[in-house]
């Protein structure tokens, strides 16, 4: 299926996406979110300073506390792999889009060692085009690089397969999958052309079919995702530290 045809399908059936946006809002309003503070720290020498930009996942959707979420899981993985400290903050909102994130980043301290972007579901449901997504992603990267660390790596997570997380008609699943694919391709294209930007695929859920269909074990999903993001983030930071120490 050509990209032009996909874009046409998304445009034609955008009202269906908006209906799913309403369902997403109802679901979020009735879903557990942690009451504790999302920021955290692993106290040890030479801490890595991480900023996460995300929507429901970065808000620790479906969990009792943020320590179980993808943000904390990623950060603690980085601390273990680097054998160093780690501190993390986030820009997170259930309906945060790439465009809104680009605007909100202007109000955040950019003295960072890495930025991890965990966005997608709201953009999928709003029908964000690949061009709009790419433009906003470039704005985020540009804003980050204007900070004290002009070589700050940016890690872009794949949009999660949200059509697997709740029951819906097969046609809607297909429509969401097409939209997710085109946004992921846009992220991958940026990572392939902009130095210091990495794209991280969503972890395989092949062994998680039962809990996704039956009990929605969000703790497991957050843990798997954190390991995948943490592995790429720690490798990127380790390479930077090695280059720094060799000077």
Structure description:
- With 247 residues, this protein is of the alpha/beta class.
- 51% of the residues lie in helices and 12% in strands.
- It contains 9 helices and 6 strands.
- The protein has a 6-stranded mixed beta sheet, sandwiched between helices.
- Helix 6 (130-145) packs parallel to helix 7.
- The relative contact order is 0.16.
- Mean pLDDT is 86; it is low at 210-215.
Cα-to-Cα separation, first versus last residue: 49 Å
Write out the strand line-up for the largest beta sheet, numbering strands in chain order: 1-3-2-4-5-6
Beta-strand content bin? 5-15%
Integer average pLDDT: 86
Total helices: the number is: 9
Give a quick account of the main beta sheet: strands, pairing sense, barrel closure: 6 strands, mixed
Round the Cα radius of gyration to an integer and report it: 18 Å
Q: What order do the SSEs take from the amino end to the carboxyl end, as H and E?
A: HHEEHEHEHHEHEHH
Overall outline? globular
Uncertain residue segments: 210-215
Helix content: 40-55%
